[in-house]
Structure to design on (121 residues):
């Protein structure tokens, strides 16, 4: 896991989730402070995100965009990343229970298995 990516995720800001197969693409947002980062996954609490969930029936590839002006980037202040992976919504289990305790309003957890993290700025 890239340390600069982890540094970006420590700062509050929007996290944009895009299904890359929809025409037009579906886009939803959440906050960085809601996202749990593990060695190979992003876990994101979900109450809505129904367009993303419907897209997964055909293709579960997603791209997540995150950034922070508080972290030094490639050409100065501000670093941003694209995270590419595959997603699924989970409604039970240990990860769901942990997230539900933190965020009682959720109905599911978006679990994204990371294939690639690329720094864009």
């Amino acid at each position: 896991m890239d340390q600069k990516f982890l540094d970006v995720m420590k700062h509050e800001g929007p996290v944009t989730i895009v299904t890359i197969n929809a025409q037009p693409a579906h886009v939803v947002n959440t906050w960085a402070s809601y996202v749990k980062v593990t060695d190979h996954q992003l876990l994101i609490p979900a109450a809505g995100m129904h367009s993303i969930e419907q897209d997964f029936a055909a293709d579960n590839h997603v791209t997540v965009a995150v950034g922070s002006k508080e972290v030094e980037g490639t050409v100065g202040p501000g670093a941003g990343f694209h995270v590419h992976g595959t997603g699924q919504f989970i409604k039970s289990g240990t990860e769901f229970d942990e997230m539900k305790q933190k965020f009682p309003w959720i109905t599911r957890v978006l679990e994204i298995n990371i294939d690639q993290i690329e720094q864009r700025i």
In short: The radius of gyration is 14 Å.
